[in-house]
UniProtKB/TrEMBL annotation:
Pfam families: DUF983. It comes from Dongia mobilis. This is Uncharacterized protein (DUF983 family). It comes from the Bacteria. The chain crosses the membrane at residues 51-71, 77-96. The keyword Membrane applies. Keywords: Membrane, Transmembrane, Transmembrane helix.
Length: 118
């Protein structure tokens, strides 16, 4: 079996084992099984990790941009209202799916599992 790079496989939103099957069946809904290698993906859970990374990355990128626009260009308030919400929403949605794929691929690669007390 070929070892696949989990970051690249996750960014491509592909199955973490075979790299061929699609990981999602909707915007953020993970498939139950890989359509190519039949890997059980029901236990794949990225939790809130991708959302945290999206918030941190977007904040680091957009906050300086907002300040630059405000203090450099001094636009009227309505420009901010029209400009930033669609930009933030679109960027968050675009980033969330690949980051969720990366988290799932890294969990598979490192064989992460829930702690179980027996």
């Amino acid at each position: 079996m070929t070892v696949r790079a989990p970051i690249l496989t996750g960014l491509a939103c592909r199955c973490p084992r075979c790299g061929q099957g699609r990981l999602f069946r909707g915007l953020l809904t993970v498939r139950e099984r890989c359509e190519h290698c039949d890997l059980d993906l029901k236990a794949a859970d990225s939790g809130d990790g991708p959302a945290v990374f999206v918030i941190l990355l977007l904040g680091a990128i957009l906050a300086p941009l907002v300040f630059w626009v405000e203090f450099g260009l001094e636009p009227p308030f309505w420009v901010h209202v029209v400009l930033w919400p669609p930009l933030v929403l679109g960027a968050a949605i675009a980033m969330l799916r690949p980051l969720k794929g990366v988290m799932i691929a890294l969990q598979f690669h490192h064989q992460a599992a829930e702690h179980r007390v027996e």
